[in-house]
Write a structure and sequence with these properties.
Number of domains: 2
Bound molecules: pyridoxal-5'-phosphate
Helix content: 40-55%
Distance between the termini: 57 Å
CATH class of the largest domain: Alpha Beta
Order of helices and strands: HHHHHEHHEHEEEHEHEEEHHEEHEEH
Number of strands: 13
Strand content: 5-15%
Structural class: alpha/beta
Shape: globular
CATH superfamily of the largest domain: Type I PLP-dependent aspartate aminotransferase-like (Major domain)
Strand order of the largest sheet: 1-9-8-7-6-2-3
Length: 475
């Protein structure tokens, strides 16, 4: 591709992106493709000879786009969002063009220094004290893995990396049954083992770990010869927003000298609004906190912020310095690859800098407040509908509901069929979960470009399809 072609296709790609985003409401949120259908249209081996860009681009539009789930669709209410504000897309074009590898300060000084700045902007925006510094990771899963590795090394007096776990006391990590599966995987990968992840019973409106049960578990483990290493607390769990009492958990962590990691991957974005910070009151005592601006804030995926109170313990756990990575004469600079498992790093700070400046914190707060209000209103409207039960009240902008099948024994089956019929309809996209063993349907408003009318359409679609399936009629 020569310079002239690069220009033509860069412009075509940008124009395509603008038209795509502009027409999202006209598309079904989820494609109706069957497994294997797309792969069958793609050549089974790479071409030996170069093909014209016109052909490649036409194939992209014909074979790929119709098979995409549209994550930026304003009526994507499934999972959690992966918001990419248009301004962060623009920043990513620039990052793609520079294609820098930002592993060390000297491999991209501006990327490192901007990263330090925007992390501190976010620390202030979230109301975290100035003792926290941080790093941008690809995902909350990576941040949690790093935190668990620090828990392991700290508890083993920094011997785990060198000597392995054999012959060491058995470590224990504590969490609730509401945490994301990234916690399980961190426990597997760190070698600590699933058996040593202690699930503390939850209770109360936000399904919080019961502090007395947590403390009793730690004491019983110590008495039985285990080595408690850390606690992972949740603020805004994936299923229904399970949230621990961080102040109570932090006090226990302090009493037992345990490392405390807080997973606020989704809900953390809402902490830019002071009125929602009660959900993580006490977080200033945590050792490590993760939140994903790529979920709710609008920073194009991927972008996960890992705050730590003591970066030294992270660096002590993860840094490795062969001669080819040494930065002679650059003492005192931050080399962010020493804070993470991967060595290579994308330039992720630029999209945050563009996003925060183009929208301002007030603009982003207004979006989050709208989402929370629209979800609360929708939950209240659905609660008034025949056969609809609100299973979990809105935690920020996430709630769950269930529709009665008529025959109680068929409820799970009926709600799975309902969510499937809603998604096949294409106007909105929802996902299901299980609450106390029974199927419930999640609703979450969080799309960057959603309007109240989009959330109203969710009400119409849910009541219309549920009514049709049970012959009750909606509204
Ligand atoms: N923690 C919570 C509460 C989540 O909801 C998710 C993903 O949805 C994760 C962690 C994992 O996030 P990531 O995909 O960034 O690893």
């Amino acid at each position: 591709m020569d310079t002239e072609e690069f220009q033509i296709w860069s412009r075509r790609a940008a124009d395509w992106g603008v038209a795509y985003r502009d027409t999202l409401r006209e598309r079904p949120v989820r494609p109706s493709t069957r497994p294997g259908e797309i792969a069958a249209r793609i050549a089974s081996s790479a071409p030996e000879q170069a093909e014209p860009m016109e052909t490649i681009f036409a194939d992209f539009e014909r074979d790929i786009v119709p098979g995409m789930t549209h994550w930026q669709h304003p009526r994507f209410f499934a999972y959690f969002p992966a918001n990419a504000a248009p301004v962060s897309v623009v920043a990513e074009y620039l990052v793609s063009a520079m294609a820098a590898q930002c592993m060390l300060w000297q491999t991209s000084p501006a990327a490192t220094e901007l990263e330090i700045r925007v992390i501190d902007w976010l620390r202030q925006a979230l109301g975290l004290p100035d003792g926290f510094s941080g790093v941008i990771q690809d995902s909350a899963s990576s941040a949690t893995l790093s935190a668990v590795l620090v828990m392991r090394e700290r508890a083993l007096d920094w011997a785990g990396n060198r000597a392995g776990l054999s012959g060491q006391p058995r470590l224990r990590i504590y969490c609730s049954d509401q945490v994301h599966t990234s916690i399980d995987r961190a426990i597997w990968v760190s070698g600590i083992g699933e058996e040593n992840l202690v699930r503390v019973p939850t209770g109360g409106r936000w399904r919080s770990m019961q502090p007395a049960a947590l403390e009793a578990a730690i004491e019983a483990d110590r008495a039985a010869g285990f080595l408690p290493a850390g606690i992972i607390a949740s603020v805004g769990g994936t299923s229904v927003g399970g949230t621990d009492d961080i102040a109570a958990v932090a006090a226990i962590a302090g009493r037992h000298d345990l490392y405390l990691h807080v997973d606020a991957a989704w809900a953390g974005s809402a902490m830019i609004c002071p009125e929602f910070r009660h959900f993580w009151a006490g977080v200033e005592a945590a050792d490590s906190v993760v939140f994903n601006p790529h979920k709710w804030l609008g920073a194009q995926f991927d972008c996960s912020i890992h705050f730590v109170r003591d970066p030294e313990s992270l660096v002590r756990t993860l840094a490795i310095k062969p001669e080819y990575l040494k930065t002679h004469g650059k003492d005192g600079v931050v080399n962010f690859s020493e804070w993470t498992v991967p060595l290579g790093r994308r330039f992720r700070a630029l999209k945050l800098w563009f996003l925060l400046r183009a929208h301002g914190l007030e603009g982003l707060r207004a979006m989050i407040r709208d989402h929370v209000r629209w979800s609360e209103n929708l939950a209240a409207r659905l609660a008034g509908q025949p056969g609809i039960e609100i299973v979990t009240e809105p935690m920020l902008s996430l709630f769950s509901f269930r529709h009665q099948a008529g025959d109680e024994t068929r409820n799970d089956e009926h709600n799975l069929a309902l969510v499937s019929a809603i998604n096949d309809d294409g106007r909105i996209y929802l996902t299901q979960t299980r609450v106390d063993g029974r199927v419930a349907i999640r609703f979450h408003a969080g799309q960057f470009e959603a309007t109240e009318a989009d959330v109203d359409m969710a009400f119409d679609v849910i009541t219309e399809i549920a009514g049709r399936m049970t012959g009750q009629g909606g509204q």
